[in-house]
Structure formats: C-alpha cells, structure tokens
TrEMBL record:
This is Peptidoglycan binding-like domain-containing protein. It comes from Actinoplanes friuliensis DSM 7358. Signal peptide: none annotated. The keyword Membrane does not apply. Keywords: Coiled coil. It comes from the Bacteria. The keyword Coiled coil applies. One of its GO terms (cellular component) is cell envelope.
Length: 353
C-alpha cells in the first residue's frame, strides 16, 4: 500500500524513488482535487501591540514661569491655550515650522510666517492677500518661495486683532514662545512640569487624539512592512478589526529595561479602519497580524498537492494521472507557489484530503 499510494506526512505526500515522466497513470483514486490558481501569496505573522493614543512626545515652552497647566487627558485644539506662561495664555497653532524669531516688522518672509497666516485665517481673521511665490516681498526686496508667508501690513493688523481678543497687548508682534506650534490637535498624556516651575523645560507629554495601535517590531522584520499595508487586529474581546499601517519608524532602539541582548526594535503605528470598534477602550493589549514576504501574481496549489519525491524535489499529480515536476517558492496560509511544464491557471491537481 505504501508503494502504491504513498504516505501523507505533515501535509505532503511521499512517493518511492522514481522520476515523473509527465505520462504516468495514477494507480489509486485521488482523495480530493484542487484547481491551480493565479494569486498573490503573502506570509503573515502575529505580534503583540498596544492600543492607545500613540507614542507620547515631550513639549517644551518658552522662557518664563508656568502659571497654569491643563489636566491630564485634556484635548487642546487650534487657538486654545496649551499652558499659561507668566499668567498669559500660550495658544496652540497647527503647523510644521516652529516660530524661531520675533515676527516684528513688515517684509519678513518665511515658513514661520506662513504658520501665522494659516492659523489666523483658520480662526476667522482676515489677513489680506499674500504675495505670490516668485514675487518680491514689500517693503524688503526678498523673494517669496512656495510655502512662505510674508508679514504684510494687513497681517500685522490681523495679529493685533487676534491679540486683543486673546487678552494680551496688541503689539502686532509674535515672538517665539508666544504660541506653541504642533502638527494638529493634541491630547495631554502626562504632566511633567507644575505651576511655579520654569517654562523653558519639558512641560508635558502629548499624543494625537486618534486611537492607534503601536507595535514594536524587530528591526530585521520591519523592512517588509510598508505604510498603507493592510493588517488585522485582534481585540481583547476576540473581535478582529481591519486596520492599516500609518507609519514605520526609521530609528531602531533597544527595548528599555532589557539586558542588552535583545534586538533593536522599530515602532510601527497602525490605525483601525473603524475607530468605533474601540470606542470604550482607552488602552489595551492587542494582537496584530502583519504581512511579511509577498509574491504577486504566482501560480499556487494547496500544500497537500505536493508530492515529495524520495530522490528529492517535488511533483504534482494532474487529475487523470500525469505527474508534473515543479519548482516551489513561497509557502503561505496552506498554499505554495509552484511552477512547472504544462502547469497553468485552471489545471486540476490531486491533493490530500
């Protein structure tokens, strides 16, 4: 019986030593059949993650004394005070370029000025027209580049109106430390400073306001993960939620508290497609199924269709009797990439039951 039917071990069928000729007849009825498909094959692995609001980052203030701080867990939006310095509110502006100089006169050009323009407009203040890129900035003969703003007289007047509404002297000047620039609205994860302490030091740790899953991947594994990759997240109650990779860290660090033998890890951030699935959770451990190696547009059969020949190599048996030698590629999710003479999409092969 072993010589005629082979032996099923670990999903593979073994045949005695012989060479497939492409014309051999089957000696026994097939247990089952499967169709050769053309598909994308991907390996997956499951790693531990943490549901929360992402990796906190520290915020520092300008020179002065802290006189008020928000509560832990508070959400701060554009125009709202992040803290008070010398009992003056320091509001939040959205942007990428922090204020690095006093904006104290007409004609100043730069991306820091653009932050002021964009935020005052978003807060409802009329700032007037801005010079177009390539044009000179008046009164200073500086060229305006894409992404720049210009301190015009209209903008200075808008700054004064905003300062009056904000309860600070209407000087028309905005200096570093008068506002805090961040990429968007923020959530206070933890307070570091307290009232009475110098404000030009770390004040608080903040995160974004959207719940995300943070995964620490070994640096050697993170290269196969790309922004936009689809992943599956298993929640504490066993439900599975669809998600996408939103960022992959570019810096690898050794785990904190380790003995120095662990591999450096990279932070991968994942956002759920449906945030409502975790609306009742603030933080929780989760499992994340991520994609590893991918082979697009390949022929694949169930692993049970492979015949492991004792003399080495593999074959598949065409339904009807012929044996076809095959080269194997990626194994994933119970299927294997194959190629061989006469093997094409739609061909029916014998597989183990």
């Amino acid at each position: 019986m072993l010589v005629l039917a082979g032996l099923v071990v670990a999903g593979l069928r073994f045949l005695p030593e012989r060479k497939p000729t492409g014309t051999e007849e089957a000696t026994g009825p097939p247990a089952a059949t499967a169709v050769v498909t053309r598909t994308d094959l991907s390996t997956t692995r499951t790693v531990s993650g943490e549901l929360g609001y992402g990796t906190p980052q520290e915020l520092e203030g300008g020179a002065g004394t802290v006189t008020w701080l928000p509560k832990q867990g508070a959400v701060v939006k554009r125009g709202q005070p992040v803290y008070r310095r010398d009992d003056r509110p320091v509001p939040l502006f959205y942007g990428r370029t922090p204020l690095f100089r006093p904006l104290d006169r007409a004609g100043l050009v730069g991306r820091d000025v653009r932050v002021v323009v964009d935020n005052l407009r978003a807060l409802g203040y009329r700032t007037g027209d801005q010079p177009l890129p390539g044009s000179p900035a008046e009164p200073a003969p500086l060229k305006v580049h894409a992404g720049d703003g210009v301190m015009t007289r209209s903008l200075i007047a808008a700054v004064k109106r905003w300062q009056t509404d904000h309860g600070v002297p209407a000087t028309g000047v905005i200096a570093p430390g008068d506002v805090l620039v961040h990429s968007g609205k923020l959530r206070v994860a933890a307070l570091i400073a307290r009232p009475g302490r110098p404000s030009d030091a770390p004040l608080m740790a903040v995160t974004g306001t959207a719940k995300v899953v943070t995964v620490q991947l070994d640096a050697g594994d993170s290269g196969s993960v790309r922004r936009g990759d689809a992943v599956r997240v298993t929640l504490p109650d066993g439900d599975v939620a669809k998600a996408k990779v939103t960022s992959v860290g570019t810096t690898a660090r050794a785990p904190e508290g380790g003995d120095g033998t662990e591999q450096p890890r990279t932070t991968v951030t994942v956002k759920l497609d449906d945030s409502g699935a975790v609306s009742r959770l603030t933080a929780a451990p989760v499992q994340v199924e991520v994609t590893g190696e991918t082979r697009p547009d390949v022929l694949a059969v169930p692993v049970g269709a492979l015949l492991a020949l004792l003399e080495g190599g593999y074959a598949v048996q065409i339904a009807g009797g012929a044996l076809v030698p095959v080269d194997t590629g990626l194994f994933a999710d119970g299927r294997v990439e194959v190629s061989g003479p006469g093997l094409d999409e739609g061909v029916t092969v014998v597989t183990a039951s």
